[in-house]
Amino acid sequence: MLLNTINSEVLIKSLADILCSDRKTIIKFFNEKAKDIINEHYNEFTIDHLNLDIIKKYCNCSKIQSIDEVVVNHIAPRKSNNSLKLEDIMTLPQVLLSDTELSRYLDKRGFVFEFVDNKIVCKHHGEFVDWNNLRQSNMIMRFGGQYSLYDFNVNGYLFATEWLLNSCRGWLGSPEILKSISSAFNDHSIADDYAERCQNYLISFMVGLENVDLECRDVSISAGEKNDLLLKYSINALAHWLTEEKHITDCYNPIIMLKRDYTVPKKDILAFHHLKVENNRVKVIAWEDK
Predict the structure, then answer these.
(1) Strand pairing category for 127-128 and 119-124
(2) Is the per-residue pLDDT at 290 higher than 70?
(3) Among 181, 190, 202, 258, which is disulfide-ready with 262 (CB 3.0 to 4.6 Å)?
(4) pLDDT (tens digit, 9 = 90+) per residue, 63-118?
(5) Whole-number Å distance between alpha carbons of 133 and 81
């Protein structure tokens, strides 16, 4: 079963399928219960308390269907959606060491990379870069080695919605890794030149449940626990989306972290969303199927 989170309409259908119900019943449930759900102010610490038995009883659902795949929404600056169609969504070592739009740009700036002993090694114009000497703790964390979490993985949001600018500023303009390299070398043109060529996209892709970890949750939780949590997140989000007076940025939108060696093949990309910054909010202004 696919949990599709691109917009409210497809999410309604997903919930109807998962709860063995229909669109009319799901809409009726939220017409009656949405404000009660919103008033609970669910977040990453309290979402467990959302009671699935209420919606199961309302839908006459004896057994919740298993979620096998989930849609994740990943913010990325790119020159155009053509590069999205040509490239997989890769982990950090893969995107730096493969023939990608980003690696070609960095090569022109004198940067080349190797992956040695589970660590990204960088050379600039042939000279080894020691991030310790450049006082770049972020690069040490991102590139692996001592004190690193080896967080090379792809991240994304569960829902395609609006964001407050401050909550996702680091993912806009140019890739986060370029911003960090620019800071290390005190050369903002490294990130700015790339950003001038870019548009901000939200990329929606499918990924198997076994390849996702949930924000603020232990990576060892069971598939059943993931299933219930994703359903609770979705009920909370849909309550916000279907209540006009409640702004959707107030909805808890968890970050989904893919397993650290997982690359999203381009065939699993469903849609590209064009993003626009307006009044300190980041909005989806249009979207197109792949």
Answers:
(1) antiparallel
(2) no
(3) 258
(4) 999 999 999 999 999 887 778 888 999 999 999 999 999 999 999 999 999 999 88
(5) 38
Query: Alpha carbon of 264 to those of 33, 144, 160, 196, 267: distances in Å?
Result: 36, 21, 18, 26, 8
Q: What type of residue is 269?
A: I
Q: Which token pair is 13?
A: 């259908």
Quick one: which of 22, 19, 15, 31 has its CA closest to 239? 31
Cα 159 from Cα 11, distance rounded (Å): 10
DSSP class of 264: B
Q: CA 154, CA 70: separation in Å to the nearest integer? A: 15
Tell me the whole-structure pTM to 2 decimals. Answer: 0.91
**pLDDT tens profile 254-286:** 999 999 889 999 999 999 888 998 888 898 887
**Segments making up each domain of the chain, as ranges:** 2-70+203-253, 92-152
5/234 Cα distance (integer angstroms): 8
Closest CA to 136 of 94, 165, 101, 179: 179
